Amino acid sequence: MNAHRARVPMVVALTTITVITVSVQSRLQPAPGAHVVTITPPGQTGSEPAIAVNPNSPNQVVGVGGGWTAHSTDGGRTFTAVQPHLGSNRSGGDPSLAFDDKGNVFLSFLWIQRNGLPSYWGHGPGANGIFVRRSADGGKTWDRDAVALIEWKGDEPDVKLEDMPRIWADTQPTSPHRGNLYNAWIEWQIEQSIVLFSRSTDAGRTWSKPMRISTRAGWPRDDNGAVVGIIGTVAPDGTQYVVWNEGLNVTLAISRDGGKTFEPSRPIFDVGPPYFGGAGGIPGVSRAMGFPQIGVDGQRGTLYVTWSDFRNGDVDVFISRSADRGQTWTPPMRVNDDPVHSGADQFLQWMAVDPTDGAVYVQFYDRRGDPANRKTLVTLARSTDGGKTFTNYAWSDRPFTGENAFLGDYEWLTAYGGRVYGIWAEAAPDDYQVMPRPSTSSTPSARPRTPTIIRVGTADFGAKR
């Protein structure tokens, strides 16, 4: 089958928000114009989703989760699923999406034939790499051949493992680097973890040789102490700001020349451990992360960074602001507005800044409505005063629970013109029929895992009411 044209019928489950109330503190007003749709094809599962909106045509939205993408031409009300061609024996993980200034959308993903040792992935990995595929028609079809940013065949004497790529684009009208694409990821080595970066100046046809942008290396295991959670944003003048976790801090790297060079990376503030596992885990979830996101308000010139950690006992979502281009940052402020030390976890946040009006949005999983801290909803927070205060809105339409559910290491959020588009994984309904798949392991899982599906929420703060 030519997967360049392959399509999968789409389940459309458009649902008006129903607010689940258990206590006074859980009575959030619904997000205006809120709708939620399931975009997972029937019988499929997914996690670690991403979403992007075309700034040239905002009704064009693309989501990804699992081995398929889904595109919308009606502002996220309905989606059609497509299976991009991933090449022989390749599967795409850690996907992310970005539209460029010309309306092309790019899918970044990793391919791993074999990890190294458990959690110590730089020790004996097989073939792996970071790849990007382009769609020129809003995600309806995808280029057959992906472009490799870095690739290991598996027989090199010093094979390393590449992980967690994130792609972003310069679509700023006043930027001298408008049209550039950027990608950064973790490289796991025997002795350390580092952040690598590559850029494209020709609409993704070619990419620069990966270069290291993390001045300080992290530890070599996929755990606290590594360099993880890399993501970037671009200011109106083309300055690029990239953040990640580096031990118990958020670290910032800045490029002022379109990604040719970077200033030395430096910690900007301390945070709690970004990995929530083991005794510090979240009930019902196999693991969760507090990785940071960065955004910029081009009108105010303010930078924002969000993350989550358990400094208050339960997990909360935080934001910090910088009004001087990243030199100094405000003390952490909670985004979720339930009482401090409530015992309810808010986790796996994602932030977006609307480039048209500077509104700041933060999406997160929220358990404030369940005294047992198990039933999970998705909340959308909004700030219109430069991140000083946030209003929390109910977004998802039904609570979910799970057992050992893998929601992924991230969810995603984007906003444009007062409309907000969020994507997340949640536990599938109890009666969900998962399509059987050939087993890739001879060892059965000791802990059954609740299957997860991908949902997209939209909200409209720009509509006249």
Protein model, in words:
The chain has 465 residues and is an all-beta fold. It has one domain: Neuraminidase, CATH 2.120.10.10. A five-stranded antiparallel β-sheet has the order 1-7-6-5-4, with no helix packed on it. The chain has a five-stranded antiparallel β-sheet with strand order 2-3-32-31-30, with no helix packed on it. A four-stranded antiparallel β-sheet has the order 8-9-10-11, with no helix packed on it. A hairpin with a 7-residue loop joins strand 4 and strand 5. It is globular.
Helix content: under 10%
Query: Strand fraction band?
Result: 35-45%
What's the CATH architecture name?
6 Propeller
CATH class: Mainly Beta
CATH-defined fold name: Neuraminidase
Output the radius of gyration.
20 Å
Q: How would you characterize the largest beta sheet?
A: 5 strands, antiparallel
What is the average of the pLDDT values?
90
Principal-axes shape call? globular
